[in-house]
Amino acid sequence: MNNAIPQQVLARQKASINTLIAAQTAMFSGFEKLVDLNMKVVRATIDEVAQKSQQAAGLTDPQEVAAFGTSLVQPGAEKALAYGKHVYDIVAGVQTELAKLAEEQIAEGQQQVAEAVEQLSKNAPAGSESAVAMLKSSLATANSAYDSLTKAAKQAAEVAESNMNAAANATFKAATDAAEAAGKATRTATRRATA
């Protein structure tokens, strides 16, 4: 038994190091994805600005200028919304990975505590059965409470994601409506100015 304890300690330390490495890998992967996304956005923005600048330089008619200005509003809102969604997806993916690692660690800890309590009950002196039973009952209650909290947290995360999607859709609709209204107002003002 003396040899088993150091082996258990070493195994737990190794598992802890592996978990730390997995967490660092998940966070670095998320960071890498954010950097890649931002590089793509910057590259696309530079290309688009160059293209739009060339188009704007060639405009001469006031109605073309008004239509061109209106055409810039809606794609910008769509792109901002898409960017926000990508960032949210990356962060949610990292959180999911970290939550999975945490759940594995907690499950392993619960298993170790259960094994320790079982070992304690086998080696407990006579007359301590009620204390051991109370300890087992407390452990079962704690595990049940953890399971309930985990389920509630997952439900809250689902609700938050649903709300985020609803807010994003509402924002996109508002941006589209604003772009259309601005386009109508610009066309009306241009017609009045030329009339």
What does this structure look like?
The model has no long low-confidence stretch (mean pLDDT 81). With 195 residues, this protein is an all-alpha fold. 93% of the residues lie in helices and 0% in strands.
Backbone shape: elongated
* Total domains: 1
- The separation of the N and C termini measures 99 Å
Q: Helical content, roughly?
A: over 70%
- Weakly predicted, low-confidence segments: none
Task: Look at the structure and give the mean pLDDT.
Answer: 81
Radius of gyration based on Cα positions? 30 Å
Order of secondary-structure elements: HHH
Instruction: Output the structural class.
Output: mainly alpha
How many DSSP-defined strands?
A: 0
Number of helices: 3
Residue share in β-strands: under 5%
Short recap of the structure:
This is Granule-associated protein (Phasin). The protein is an all-alpha fold.
Search tags:
195 residues; mainly alpha; 93% helix; elongated
Helices and strands, with pairings:
Blueprint: H1 4-57, H2 62-123, H3 129-194
Helix pairs in contact: 1-2, 2-3
Domain Phasin: 7-106
InterPro entries: Phasin (IPR018968), Phasin_subfam-1 (IPR010127)
Protein name: Granule-associated protein (Phasin)
